[in-house]
Amino acid sequence: MFRGDESGTTDNFQKYLDSASDGVWDKGIGKTFHGGVGQGADGNGGTSAAVRATEGSVTYNEWSFGLAQKLTMARIVTSAGPEAVGISAGSVGKTISGATLTGQGNDLVVDTFSFYKPTRPGSYPIVLATYEIVCSKYPDPQVGAAVKAFLQSTIGAGQNGLVDNGYIPVPESFKSRLSDAINAIA
């Protein structure tokens, strides 16, 4: 089962296939699935439900949907070692904390391509990061203060309960750089 609609999840999965296979995956990348086989379903909910209803089928989708549908998750052998790695908060946390933050000053960019070929054993390789793009200075100080408060809450109390809902908290190793960037918003 693959995503029949255009999807960032599909783009991420095909980038993983291309990178992890050292180019053996020659179908391309992008928001439309190029695998050439299988049946499409719309959305992560659609692929999860279709796999649950079709014995022996496989799919790719967001972890939270797999958890909600009580699907069995694949364990993946990575470039970091011979042991297959299952998806968990710990294995994805290792992947994210092993990534490089690039960019100048407070313009923080996560090198997501490093996720696909991890170097740390126990790192799960198919990870998609969420970004927040904001201005460093706002003409209206109240807007700047509101944006700053929102982002402070996302790296603070907003981290609570993420794992229970299929999401991974920001690694501790990133929090100080994120906090510095957020606190610089005016």
UniProtKB/TrEMBL annotation:
InterPro entries from the entry?
PBP_domain, Phosphate-bind_PstS
Short name of any one Pfam family annotated for the protein: PBP_like_2
Q: Where is the PBP domain?
A: 2-152
UniProt similarity note? Belongs to the PstS family.
Listed name of the protein: PBP superfamily domain protein
Q: Which source organism does the UniProt entry give?
A: Mycobacterium intracellulare 1956
Question: What lineage is on file?
Answer: Bacteria, Bacillati, Actinomycetota, Actinomycetes, Mycobacteriales
